[in-house]
């Protein structure tokens, strides 16, 4: 089958959270990988961890996509068959404070990348988009036909990047792109060697919970319990990062087969509240997660979850890992690496961790 062919894949932002997990899935599939990353939000240490997982050195070029000359040189040094583009700044709060930096990094970087792809005749692109392009949805579950809208500058960059790519596909009939709209990626590789390692105070709920469990933070603040949801806390569609990683591999196969362009949601289709997540994490880790209910966070919406049926229909992809696996694997990564990539991997799962509860 054409889709089974081994390819040389440029993974922009491949040292980051989702990119590094996708590299393991690409390598497992037999693809050759070249990572390009400026390590603005990741650690070069991830490369040695990846090497341990895939059993071979992982090629990486340290570069900033905003540098047109650096990107041009990258495409001169390698013959890529396809590109997966994860490289972006992604913190919603920061994007309000530094909108120009977000536009420059995310959009200028993408323009340079697309220009070099075009010049080098690399016609296959898998792009990291986000459920954020749906803004405040009119209804759930959200399908790909839902109205698009943005509520923050980060989301606007994602929408503009989607539109840029769509325009390029229209302008050049040979160019093929898969636009993957992720819902809430969580969890980690089952080895515990790679995972999510946010700098500073985590913005997202799962890494925050992990750091509470590890004793790095006192308690979780739950942003509001007065939403029109079953228990009043916000509902999201959490998806295991390994399921997400596998979706990139099948999306690449789809593009290589020449089946056309693609815009799909990647989620489980199941909405989980913050309280449900906390309790699932407690069961999976055996740790208590103290929390307090505080005011709603600005810009948050009540419920966001996917209708993932299009991805199932077009790609034959569906999630395999449930909420328990998400929590278990997030906790394995956190407990083996209490300080993320700052320290060598701990040998055991326990250590300076919070009060433990009986596993259920
Ligand atoms: P991440 O920050 O862990 O990874 C992004 C990587 O890109 C980092 O290694 C960073 O150093 C690199 N990078 C950023 N700007 C760069 C530049 N100009 N040149 C070279 N490298 C650069 O983020 P992630 O969670 O792995 O997210 C990956 C992608 O998925 C992003 O595009 C993000 O917008 C999108 N996304 C993430 C989530 C999520 O919750 N994590 C949800 C939806 C969409
Ligand atoms: N949330 C929370 N406390 C936190 C971080 C997040 O209660 O410290 C809630 C947030 O209000 C939302 C859900 O957890 O209902 C998921 O938030 P996250 O930032 O992880 O993802 P996003 O809002 O981008 O979907």
Question: How would you describe what is shown here?
Answer:
This protein is 38% helix and 16% strand. It has a single domain, classed as 3-Layer(aba) Sandwich (Rossmann fold), CATH 3.40.50. The protein contains eleven helices and 13 strands. Helix 3 packs parallel to helix 5, helix 5 runs parallel beside helix 6 and helix 9 packs across helix 11. The chain is globular. The strands form four sheets. A seven-stranded parallel β-sheet has the order 3-2-1-4-5-6-11, sandwiched between helices. The C terminus is likely disordered. It is of the alpha/beta class and 360 residues long. Bound molecules: nicotinamide-adenine-dinucleotide (NAD) and uridine-5'-diphosphate. The site of nicotinamide-adenine-dinucleotide has 27 residues, from helix 1, helix 5, strand 5 and strand 7. The site of uridine-5'-diphosphate has 14 residues, from helix 7 and strand 8.
Biggest sheet descriptor? 7 strands, parallel
CATH top level is: Alpha Beta
What's the multimeric state? single chain
- Radius of gyration (CA) equals 20 Å
The outline comes out as: globular
How many domains, in number, for the residues?
1
What order do the strands of the largest sheet run in, or round the barrel if closed? 3-2-1-4-5-6-11
- Ligand identities: nicotinamide-adenine-dinucleotide, uridine-5'-diphosphate
Give the averaged pLDDT, no decimals: 93
Strand content: 15-25%
Amino- and carboxy-terminal Cα gap: 45 Å
DSSP strand tally: 13
How many DSSP helices? 11
Q: In the CATH scheme, what's the topology name? A: Rossmann fold
What fraction, in percent, of the residue positions are helical?
25-40%
CATH architecture: 3-Layer(aba) Sandwich
């Amino acid at each position: 089958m054409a889709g089974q062919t081994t390819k040389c894949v440029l993974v922009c932002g491949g040292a980051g959270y989702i990119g590094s997990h996708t590299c393991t899935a690409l390598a497992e599939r037999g693809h050759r990988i070249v990572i390009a990353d400026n390590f603005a939000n990741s650690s070069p240490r991830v490369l040695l961890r990846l090497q341990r997982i895939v059993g071979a050195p992982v090629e990486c070029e340290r570069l900033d996509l905003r540098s047109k000359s650096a990107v041009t040189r990258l495409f001169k040094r390698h013959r890529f068959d396809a590109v997966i583009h994860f490289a972006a700044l992604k913190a919603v709060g920061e994007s309000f404070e530094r909108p120009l930096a977000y536009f420059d990094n995310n959009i200028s970087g993408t323009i340079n990348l697309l220009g070099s792809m075009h010049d080098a005749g690399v016609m296959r692109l898998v792009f990291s988009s986000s459920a954020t392009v749906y803004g405040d949805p009119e209804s759930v579950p959200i399908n790909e036909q839902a109205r698009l809208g943005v509520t923050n500058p980060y989301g606007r960059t994602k929408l503009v990047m989607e539109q840029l790519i769509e325009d390029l596909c229209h302008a050049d009939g040979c160019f093929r792109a898969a636009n993957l709209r992720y819902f809430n990626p969580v969890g980690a590789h089952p080895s515990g060697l790679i995972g999510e390692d946010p700098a500073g105070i985590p913005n997202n709920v799962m890494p925050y919970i992990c750091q509470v469990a590890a004793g790095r933070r006192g308690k979780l603040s739950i942003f509001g319990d007065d939403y029109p949801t079953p228990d009043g806390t916000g509902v999201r569609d959490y998806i295991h990062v390994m399921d997400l990683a596998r979706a990139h591999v099948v999306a690449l196969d789809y593009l290589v087969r020449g089946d056309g362009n693609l815009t799909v949601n990647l989620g489980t289709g199941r909405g989980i509240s913050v309280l449900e997540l906390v309790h699932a994490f407690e069961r999976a880790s055996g740790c208590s997660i103290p929390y307090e209910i505080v005011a709603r966070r600005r810009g948050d919406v009540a419920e966001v979850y996917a209708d993932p049926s299009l991805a199932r229909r077009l790609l034959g992809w569906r999630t395999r890992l449930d909420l328990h696996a998400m929590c278990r694997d997030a906790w394995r990564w956190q407990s083996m690496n209490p300080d993320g990539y700052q320290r060598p991997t701990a040998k055991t799962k326990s250590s300076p961790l919070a009060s433990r509860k009986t596993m259920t």
